[in-house]
Amino acid sequence: MGNRRSIFLYPFSVIWGIISGFRNFLYDKKILDSRKFDLPVICTGNITVGGTGKTPHAGYLAGLLGTKYNVAVLSRGYKRKTKGFRIAGPASETADIGDEPLLISRKYPGITVAVDSDRR
């Protein structure tokens, strides 16, 4: 069964490899622009499929680094009802900032958690 699945998925992995390789080439040649920041950034995202452990990992890193550094967690705030930039506060609810940013802000109250749908 596993071998059949591998054979079936192989063409898709080749296509994915070609697309991601081409995308990396465009970044390397400066055709696509990447953002530069003056502060260190750790990205736990950029995975489009849910259930991969991004939120617990981001929370763990924030809690670990937050004991020594000034840390902020930024999110798009998936399924929130508000628009624009928001910083989580004690009165924030899921509708304000989304369920995962709310989880991190409640578990790690000393960490700044902010949401904005605009990634730029």
Write the layout of secondary structure elements.
Blueprint: H1 2-28, H2 54-66, E1 72-75, E2 86-87, H3 94-97, H4 99-107, E3 112-115
Parallel strand pairs: 1-3
Antiparallel strand pairs: 2-3
The total count of strands amounts to: 3
Structural class: mainly alpha
Radius of gyration over C-alpha positions, nearest whole angstrom? 18 Å
* End-to-end Cα distance: 44 Å
The total number of structural domains is: 2
The topology string of helices and strands comes to HHEEHHE
Which stretches of 5+ consecutive residues score pLDDT under 50? none
What is the molecular shape?
Answer: globular
Mind summarizing the main beta sheet? 3 strands, mixed
State the helicity in percent bands: 40-55%
Mean pLDDT: 90
| Strand line-up of the largest beta sheet | 1-3-2
Strand content: 5-15%
Number of helices: 4
Could you list some keywords that capture this structure?
single chain, 120 residues, mainly alpha, 2 domains, three-stranded mixed beta sheet, 3 strands, 44% helix, globular
Written description of the protein model:
By secondary structure, the chain is mainly α. It folds into two domains: 1-34; 35-120, no CATH class. The chain has helices at residues 2-28, 54-66, 94-97, 99-107; strands at residues 72-75, 86-87, 112-115.
Brief sketch in words of this structure:
The chain has 120 residues and is mostly helical.
